[in-house]
Specification:
single chain; mainly beta; Membrane-bound Lytic Murein Transglycosylase D, Chain A
Length: about 500
């Protein structure tokens, strides 16, 4: 007769990965605008909350537009808009934890009389976690069991904010558009806190002697996020986003430079896993009765390292406008990367806005530099990949042909899958048929291990091993195993 004892407890697990897109429009009214030469959107999250069958999220889109006025001078205008959206899913319920990552995936500009409208496609990727009960059989008297060591995981989420300040000077009289991308280079769990280090790649479209110029700067940051569940040192997966950013530029006429004060509020969100190594019953059988077993499976991606790659990519690029030798290139501004995973690394394109002068007028066009980068030393189960463009240069190789070179900083959350499969319930369901033959000959299948052989012979593995010391597992399929049954 079976006698089972159980271990039970609560843990946190991921239950859903959701994604959606929404369109956010910003209308600029009454602006004396000539040609628009650059559009820079910046999106940030303001709230995310799970409800019954739905997750609601909201954010703020700030859009900066650079245009040429009637005097052929560069001007800017900035406007923001709040937005809210939702995703429906039967798995959602109140009190669940949601991690939302927003991105501006595409922008479109259209004129409406004297006004114009910027339409932005905002993408949302939401990871949902929830508390659950874990129960597994710790011992099963009356049955032959197989035990294996497994790692049971508990997901721990953390979040926080930090201020980043920087003072520097540059040779320019004004800053038209700042574009910033934060990149986490390392994240480590320590006692009571999570330490995050990284860099902000700041791209500035500025004005120097009346002409546009692109300037780049790297700003390091370090933040400590309080976390009561942080106990055992380990790597963690973390992302950072710009929640708010201000830049003050004061012209110093005597020095011929501008003094710049940069301030940004970074919002951090991430997770790590508490791991417990446990001896789990992964299979069982009875020598007398048939057993009906129930199994549970768990799978988690655990961060083991954050790997950083620096690459330079170059080559011919795609340009939307028709360029010739009458075009004088002024600045390559607001670079960003679009990419996807490949078998050997990542592939995609670096996108930037090229400002140039033609016929005494300032114009712009979109430039796309295709790239493919191999990333060595990664596990096949690597996680999140981030790509920051640290600068781009564009030149006219021949009339109508442009080539570009860009510097990339690539970070990869490397890790491993933690899998656990265990018996969570067992019940007897009738006696096994009795074999009263004096001798049986068992012909195994190639690859049968000791446990599979024991189950087929309805005998404990140690009995099979002691009675057949000449066998080597796994079996080849050519063996013949004699089973003798004495009469009582």
């Amino acid at each position: 007769m079976l006698n089972a004892t159980y271990n039970t407890g609560a843990y946190t697990r991921k239950i859903a990965e959701l994604s959606a897109q929404s369109i956010v429009e910003i209308k600029f009214v009454g602006q004396d605008v000539g040609e628009v030469v650059a559009v820079c959107p910046q999106v940030s999250l303001s709230s995310v909350e799970a409800a019954s069958g739905r997750v609601n999220y909201g954010g703020r889109l700030i859009c900066t537009v650079v245009y040429v006025d009637g005097d052929n001078k560069l001007c800017r205008v900035q406007k923001g808009a709040e937005f809210s959206h939702h995703i429906d899913s039967e798995a959602l319920a109140p009190a669940q934890t949601c991690d939302c990552r927003l991105s501006c995936e595409h922008t479109n500009l259209k004129r409406e009389g004297s006004s114009y409208v910027v339409s932005a496609v905002v993408g949302a990727n939401i990871s949902v976690s929830d508390r659950a009960e874990r129960s597994y059989i710790n011992s099963l008297d009356g049955a032959v069991v197989r035990r294996e060591e497994g790692k049971l995981c508990n997901a721990v989420s953390f979040s926080g904010e930090s201020e980043v300040d920087d003072d520097f000077n540059l040779v320019a009289t004004d800053i038209l558009v700042p574009s910033a991308q934060p990149v986490v280079l390392n994240c480590a769990v320590k006692t009571g806190l999570v330490e995050v280090t990284g860099e902000i790649y700041l791209s500035l479209l500025a004005v120097r002697e009346g002409a546009p110029v692109a300037l780049d700067r790297t700003i390091p940051f370090k933040a400590e996020i309080s976390c009561e569940q942080a106990v055992v040192p380990s790597p963690a997966d973390c992302r950072a986003e710009i929640k708010d950013m201000t830049i003050d530029c004061k012209v110093n006429e005597e020095r011929g430079k501008s003094d710049v004060t940069f301030n940004a509020t970074l919002a951090f969100c991430g997770e790590f896993y508490e791991e417990e190594t446990v001896s789990l019953i992964t299979d069982a059988f009875s020598t007398e009765n048939e057993l009906n077993l129930s199994f549970s499976e768990e799978k988690n991606f655990v961060c083991t390292d954050v790997k950083v790659y620096q690459e330079r990519v170059s080559g011919l690029c795609d340009v939307k406008a028709k360029l010739d030798y009458t075009c004088a290139f002024l600045a390559a501004a607001l670079p960003c990367a679009e990419f996807s995973r490949t078998l050997e690394g990542i592939g995609g394109s670096v996108n930037a806005t090229l400002l140039y002068e033609q016929g005494g007028e300032i114009r712009s066009t979109e430039v796309n530099l295709p790239f493919a980068v191999k990333l060595s030393g990664l596990n096949s189960d690597c996680g999140r990949v981030s790509v920051a463009v640290c600068g781009i240069s564009i030149r006219q190789r021949a009339e109508g042909e442009c080539e570009a070179e860009a510097a990339l900083k690539i970070t990869v959350t490397d890790g491993e899958d933690r899998k656990a499969r265990y018996v969570c319930a067992a019940e007897e369901c009738g006696a096994k048929p009795v074999n009263d033959s004096a001798i049986s000959i068992y012909i195994p299948a190639a690859g049968d291990d000791l446990w599979t052989t024991a189950k087929k012979l309805n005998a404990a593995p140690e009995n099979i091993r002691s009675a057949n010391p000449e066998l080597t597992f796994p079996l080849t399929g050519k063996e013949r195993i004699l089973v003798f049954r004495g009469k009582s």
